[in-house]
Write a structure and sequence with these properties.
The complex is a heterodimer. Chain A has one domain: Rossmann fold (3-Layer(aba) Sandwich). Helix content of chain A is 28%, strand content 19%. Chain A is built from eleven helices and twelve strands. In chain A, strand 1, helix 2 and strand 2 form a beta-alpha-beta unit. Chain A is globular, with a radius of gyration of 21 Å. The termini of chain A are far apart. Chain B has four domains: 200 residues, Pyruvate-ferredoxin oxidoreductase, PFOR, domain III (Pyruvate-ferredoxin Oxidoreductase, domain 3), CATH 3.40.920; 184 residues, Thiamin diphosphate (ThDP)-binding fold, Pyr/PP domains (Rossmann fold, 3-Layer(aba) Sandwich); 72 residues, no CATH class; 108 residues, 3-Layer(aba) Sandwich (Rossmann fold), CATH 3.40.50. In chain B, strand 12, helix 10 and strand 13 form a beta-alpha-beta unit. The radius of gyration of chain B is 27 Å and the shape is globular. The chains are: A alpha/beta, B alpha/beta. At the A-B interface, strand 2, helix 3, helix 5 and helix 11 of A face strand 9, helix 7, strand 11, helix 9 and helix 10 of B. Strand 2 of chain A pairs parallel with strand 17 of chain B.
């Protein structure tokens, strides 16, 4: 970690977004993670994406559980509320928070231990409920804060720093989410900002649960030879399958993409994700074919990356529950109480 | 006392033994409601198995002209509809009592009891002759015994017809078939037995301004009136009907007539961990949110409760207590989560708890729980038990003050935030231990980071001992503030001066009040205090200090209320004598009377020199 405080001075020439904010306005507290941690690159991508989308900082809600990844919610958008909850339970906090106010942008940051071990149940059920949030897993295959134990995403045969070899099959959040019906499933790599930033933007604009599994090497406990989650191994085995460009609605007209090679996906607000297939045999709108393809490539030790599956138009949590268009936490009390006359009517049944 | 030989109008107990899943609940409710409609105070208690169909189940109706609401502890009239429990049911009838059975089948000779009048009615035979279809015959057999009892107890058939007409307003043919079954039983009884019995009903005027309602329904209704908008929960007996109640009232009263949208979110969670997480997330984000559970659910919620305590997030939790430990007996009542709730979670935690004694209090305390949770920024637990939650109690009409507006506590508005130079989440500006909070989405200046890890009074991360201690010491001050805000204990002095006290909690109240009346007839006077909240207020401390001998009446094995009193007040342990009832059945007044008389000579001023052992269950 670094102890050099960042000066709050903004250089006048820094580029500004539509709200007149610079990237510095989307930063957070100083990171306390190890130098070179993949998570810090993801934080940088989040800052870039929130700035790029011109999100009002106070409308960004950052939620996390426990672990190295979960600390990062403090490191971006200091103008938005953050909630560092208990281990593996961020999805339920997110569900409740979203239920109370559907107008904010919910970003859940989790790790492979937080999501795939202790929090597996809550992760699955947040997907089932289609909570409108971006759920980002910073996946490094190990427990960092407790010093190097395997997590549930560790591959068979991967070697821990202390020498143990993992014998148990990994849980792949991408395949799991696709099985559970998620409408936005992506995988990326912390070292590929160009791929990651548009994915985060698209995920934030997607109505419903958007998962991005980001391979994010742990420089301290899982970056050695024999590890399948090291920088070197990831760079070697990761395969961009679909390049996603995010085009906000207002810029859509000027978008420049050649027909045929690109597949535009229109989101609820008119924004588009333009998918460019790199792997020609891949169809990111066909759940079954996509799942089969991902599995096939994993067998050959290749992580397909990019926006692997997308299905806009799914009904998210509030639509399913028939709640009002505005936030529940702002419904005036007068609309919530049946009043004394109402009570008289209610209790007449109990006479 | 239980002799049935004398004429006992409106003062007796009927117990109905049936098989679970045969539809006896509607017959029993009809019977009880018809007595209630006749102006006679009545109480109904359901003793049911953890089962959907096939196991024995009992329903007890206590008719009490004096308005006593506790379990009587004896049975005057047994309706023995379950062959499997015949023997046991007959043994339970008090000398001079009655046993009603289905005489379609011969009664084994061994069930004879000379001191009990046996009344046989061929219920199955009559119903088979008059109704077709297996299910209908079984259902009507139950309605038929209600008819028998109507004759024996002199219940007005007009009242029964009126109730059926209300129940089946949309299916009038059912009114006629049910009335036919009632009439069959009624006529048979009048033809073959002297009606009415010396134990009978007689019209009174003591139920006007009252309703019959269970505590879970009242609690769910209270949440609607409190303005709760988010409910997260996981099904568990005996709390589930709190949520059913909230949902059914909300479905009716919370749907916007213009848009058809629901002004509430009702989320069935994957488990109790998620349920409380949703409540905390929603409350943190400015909605009134709650969950309902039972002991095992509180166990699962412990980690999150600690977070909510330390991060200071309002939340409301209803714990409808059932028998423990572990799965225990899920359909039997106890007050066994007092300590679990008061100190839930790891680390130094203490929680605000409310202890309603009846459905009426469930309603008002439900609303109050939200005000307290938001004012104090902390979890508030409302502890019911199965007896209050799932049984029908006679209560005064529920009323709602039109002027009520939710107390949202110290939440800064946009205008207030803008004026601030900097927002500090955990600063004790008002010296009451309660800091100010902000909601997401208001202003970047209002933003802070909520965390369960060490934080300073300014809301920033810390591992500094001094900074950490400042925050946890302030939480103690906040708990002191809570003492002033929670409902006060109810204290009722005896008519004559005494240094004997009885302390009790929740659903023990009815039994204690009845016991006090009985003890008075035995020349024992005792002052009574019912605690209604934790932390205990000054009045609790004073009551304990003013009495030489104090009986602590509660429904658990380990004297949890007594422990809480000794831990949280200055009282000497030796002055507190426990009367512990933990069989899973609701406590009766006779249990308390015999417990007190075992230690106090009639006259009240001399205490027997016996060790303060727990008195065995009734």
């Amino acid at each position: 970690m670094t102890f050099i405080p960042k000066p709050k001075v903004r250089h006048p020439s820094l580029p500004k977004n539509d709200l007149g904010f610079t990237r510095r306005d989307y930063e957070g507290a100083l990171t306390t993670l190890c130098a070179g941690c993949g998570h810090d690159s993801i934080t940088a991508a989040l800052i870039e994406a929130c700035w790029g989308l011109s999100l009002e900082p106070q409308n960004v809600v950052k939620l996390s559980g426990i672990g190295c990844s979960s600390k990062t919610t403090a490191y971006f958008v200091s103008g938005g509320h953050g909630f560092n909850a208990v281990h593996g339970r961020m999805p339920s906090i997110a569900t409740g928070a979203n239920a109370a106010n559907r107008e904010l942008h919910y970003i859940g940051i989790s790790g492979d231990g937080d999501t795939l071990s202790i929090g597996l149940g809550q992760f699955c059920h947040a997907i089932r409920r289609n909570v409108n949030m971006l759920y980002l897993i910073e996946n490094n295959g190990v427990y960092g804060l407790t010093k190097g134990q395997f997590s549930a995403s560790a591959d068979i045969g991967t070697r821990a720093k202390k020498g143990d070899v993992n014998q148990q099959a990994p849980i792949d959040p991408v395949q799991l989410a696709m099985t559970l019906g998620a409408g936005f499933v992506a995988r990326s790599f912390s070292g590929d900002k160009e791929q990651l930033v548009p994915l985060i933007k698209a995920g934030l604009r997607h109505q419903g649960f958007a998962l991005i599994d980001v391979l994010s090497p742990c420089v301290t406990f899982n970056d050695h030879e024999g590890s399948t989650k090291s920088y070197a191994y990831t760079r070697e085995h990761y395969e961009p399958a679909v390049q996603a460009d995010f085009i906000p609605f207002e810029r859509e007209i000027k978008a420049d993409y050649a027909e045929g090679e690109a597949l535009p996906i229109v989101l609820h607000d008119g924004s588009r994700i333009v998918l460019r297939k790199i792997d020609q045999g891949y169809d990111p709108t066909d759940r079954i074919a996509a799942a089969a393809h991902i599995q096939e490539r994993l067998k050959a030790n290749e992580f397909l990356t990019g926006l692997l599956y997308v299905e806009p138009g799914q009904r998210e949590f509030h639509e399913v529950n028939g709640t009002p268009a505005g936030p529940l936490n702002r419904v005036p009390y007068e609309k919530l109480s049946p009043g004394s006359k109402g009570l008289e009517k209610i209790i007449s049944r109990y006479r | 006392m239980s002799s049935a030989s004398q004429d006992r109008v409106n003062d007796f107990v009927i117990k109905i033994a049936t098989v679970n899943g045969t539809g006896s609940a509607s017959a029993n409710a009809l019977l009880m409601k018809s007595i209630f409609r006749s102006g006679i105070p009545v109480m109904g208690k359901n003793y049911f198995p953890s089962n959907i169909q096939g196991l024995p189940t009992w329903y007890e109706i206590r008719v009490s002209r004096d308005g006593y609401v506790a379990r009587a502890g004896h049975v005057d009239i047994m309706v023995a509809m379950n062959a499997e429990t015949y023997g046991k049911d007959l043994r339970e009838v008090a000398a001079g009592g009655y046993l009603i059975y289905d005489s379609t089948w011969a009664r084994p000779a061994l069930l004879k009891r000379e001191d009990v009048t046996v009344i046989g009615v061929p219920l199955a035979q009559m119903c088979n002759e008059h109704f077709s279809g297996v299910r209908t015959r079984i259902l009507m057999k139950n309605i038929c015994y209600a008819g028998v009892l109507a004759a024996l107890l002199d219940i007005d058939l007009g009242v029964i017809r009126e109730l059926l007409a209300e129940t089946y307003a949309k299916k009038p043919q059912l009114v006629e078939s049910n009335m036919k079954a009632i009439q069959l039983g009624y006529d048979y009884a009048r033809e073959h037995y002297r009606c009415p019995l010396p134990l009978r009903t007689g019209k009174m005027d003591r139920t006007a301004g009252h309703i019959m309602i269970d505590g879970n329904t009242a609690a769910g209704l209270g949440c609607v009136f409190a303005g709760a908008t988010v409910a997260g929960w996981y099904p568990i007996t005996p709390s589930t009907s709190v949520m059913d109640s909230f949902k059914s009232f909300a479905d009716k009263w919370r749907v916007d007539p213009e848009t058809g949208k629901k002004n509430f979110a009702f989320i069935q969670a994957e488990d109790e961990l998620a349920a409380i997480g949703m409540v905390i997330g929603a409350s943190w984000n400015g909605a009134r949110a709650f969950t309902a559970t039972s002991g095992p659910g509180i166990s699962l919620m412990n980690e999150f409760l600690g977070l909510a305590y330390y991060a200071e997030i309002p939340s409301v939790i209803f714990d409808v207590q059932r028998v423990g430990p572990s799965t225990g007996m899920p359909t039997r009542t106890q007050q066994c989560d007092l300590l679990e709730c008061a100190y839930a979670s790891h680390g130094d935690t203490r929680h605000v708890c409310l202890y309603p004694a009846n459905p009426e209090e469930c309603f008002y305390m439900a609303a109050q729980a939200f005000d307290l949770a938001e004012r104090l920024q902390t979890p508030v637990m409302v502890l019911l038990d199965l007896d209050i939650g799932m049984n029908d109690w006679m209560c005064r009409d529920l009323k709602w003050d039109e002027a009520y507006r939710p107390d949202r506590g110290k939440v800064l508005s946009l205008e207030e935030v803008v004026k601030l130079e900097k927002f500090h989440r955990y600063l004790d500006k008002d010296e009451d231990g309660i800091p100010y909070r902000t909601l997401p989405g208001v202003h970047p200046k209002a933003a802070y980071f909520t965390r369960g890890s060490g934080h300073t009074q300014y809301g920033t991360y810390t591992e500094d001992s001094g900074e950490y201690q400042l925050v946890v010491d302030r939480l103690v001050r906040k708990f002191h503030t809570a003492r002033r805000l929670v409902p006060k204990a109810i204290i009722e002095p005896a008519a004559t001066k005494t240094d004997i006290g009885i302390v009790s909690i929740g659903s023990c109240d009815g039994a204690v009040r009845e016991a006090l009346d009985v003890l008075r007839t035995r020349a024992v006077a005792a002052d009574y205090m019912r605690v209604r909240a934790f932390p205990f207020g000054e009045e609790v401390e004073r009551f304990l200090a003013e009495h030489r001998l104090i009986f602590v009446v509660e429904q658990n094995r380990d004297a949890q209320l007594r422990s809480l009193l000794t831990l949280e007040t200055e009282v000497e342990k030796s002055r507190l004598r426990s009367l512990l009832h933990y069989s899973g059945l609701p406590i009766s007044s006779s249990f308390i009377v015999s417990g007190v008389l075992a230690e106090v000579w009639p006259g009240g001023d001399r205490v027997k020199l016996v060790p303060s052992a727990a008195v065995a269950g009734h």
